[in-house]
Write a structure and sequence with these properties.
The chain is mostly helical. The protein has 5 helices and no strands. The protein has one domain.
């Protein structure tokens, strides 16, 4: 049976991003229309949550490095409002793959994480 983590563990709380961080943020700020029930939610997320907690318990430096490298890559892409060169779209696609790789590694899908890279 899954159990809640003690309050001092910052990973125990889930958060939603504010609507203004999205390009179409106004459309996202609507009331839920079909919320999943608790049994389904916990059935889907309990294993993934467990893996995330266990992987992040022992791979903090690796996760920080991957996150930092992804951020550096985003910076290297350049400003989307400036004139885009030939590499812009390819680098943007690669950034998505790097971010996906981080997520997959954190959730224990190591083969898929390597495939993304």
């Amino acid at each position: 049976m899954a159990k809640k983590q003690p309050p001092p563990d910052f990973r125990a709380v889930r958060r939603k991003l504010d609507p203004e961080v999205f390009m179409n943020g106004e459309e996202l700020d609507v009331d839920p229309t079909d919320v999943v029930d608790e049994a389904t939610w916990s059935g889907i997320t309990h294993l993934a949550d467990d893996v995330v907690m266990r992987v992040s318990d022992h791979n903090g430096v690796r996760l920080e490095l991957l996150y930092s490298l992804w951020g550096d890559w985003i910076t290297a892409i350049g400003d989307p409002d400036d004139e885009r060169d030939e590499l812009y779209d390819c680098m943007l696609d690669a950034a998505s793959a790097f971010q996906c790789s981080n997520f997959l590694f954190l959730h224990g899908f190591y083969r898929a994480a390597i495939a993304e890279l």
